[in-house]
Amino acid sequence: QVQLVEAGGGLVQAGDSLRLSCAASGLTFRPYAMGWFRQAPGKEREFVASIHWVFGSTNYADSVKGRFTISRDNAKKTVYLQILSLKPDDTAVYFCALDQSPTGPKYWGQGTQVTVSS
Questions:
Q1: What is the mean pLDDT of each run of 10 residues along the chain (118 residues)?
Q2: CA pair distance 23, 109, nearest whole angstrom
Q3: What residues contact 9, with CB distance under 8 A and at least 6 apart?
């Protein structure tokens, strides 16, 4: 059974940095990609960033380019999200996702709360 466990969220001030991590376990396959989504209060879940598990190629939402960096450690089966210059608009629950293949299925973590105070 695939499990994704996020860590690293918390309450921070605007301008601070954070690094979120997501450790995958229970894998019986090599992931296609892993990524991050976020859901702010009253809003739909939105894509943040993804990384191809083998090639390391990355994709970012336009709203986070330049401040967010996604990376992975294949040996640890862990993906990271480095966030710089946090803004109050970054306040959200951040969810880790794992794609078994380009067409799914997609597995989700339980989420980690990031709250940015102004």
A1: 96 97 96 97 97 97 96 96 97 97 94 97
A2: 9
A3: 18, 20, 94, 112, 113, 114
